[in-house]
Write a structure and sequence with these properties.
CATH architecture of one domain: Sandwich
CATH class of one domain: Mainly Beta
Distance between the termini: 62 Å
Radius of gyration: 20 Å
Oligomer: single chain
Order of helices and strands: HEEEEEEE
Helix content: under 10%
Strand content: 25-35%
Largest sheet: 4 strands, antiparallel
Shape: elongated
Length: about 130
């Protein structure tokens, strides 16, 4: 019997690549990590080559949306053989848990990685109870 690695079909990636087409101008979602620790929820997005002013972060109706645009360099003296750097607009959204404090969202952008922190509401954080 032959063992094979299970590779789940990623519909989003398939459609994104199919819609990008020959010119590569379709919207492309950045790679992201989303996790939590005791005090906050975190979202990281890989956005290399962008400037802070090219990125927009919106929290509305319990949804975090990261959007922006990779501007295309205007150069007629280049002939590309391979062009895999994505360009054009992108958007990525995350449904937030009700325990996130939407009023205290903070973001940093360093070395091409956007990190968004969504603190947990105080009443939802674990508390140590002293026994009397």
């Amino acid at each position: 019997m032959t063992m094979t690695t299970f590779m789940p079909f990623d519909v989003d990636k398939f459609l994104d690549e199919a819609l990008r087409g020959a010119n590569g101008n379709a919207s492309r979602s950045p790679a992201c990590n989303a996790y939590e620790d005791e005090r906050s929820y975190w979202v990281q997005a890989a956005l290399p080559g962008l400037h802070r002013e090219d990125i927009e972060i919106v929290v509305e109706d319990q949804v975090l949306t990261i959007k922006g645009e990779r501007k295309e360099e205007a150069s007629k003296d280049k002939t590309y053989f391979v062009r895999e750097f994505n360009r054009g607009s992108f958007v990525r959204s995350f449904k937030l848990p009700t325990t996130a404090d939407h009023t205290k969202v903070a973001a940093t952008y360093q070395d091409g990685v956007l990190t968004v922190e969504l603190p947990k509401r105080e009443e939802t954080k674990p508390r140590r109870i002293t026994i009397a």
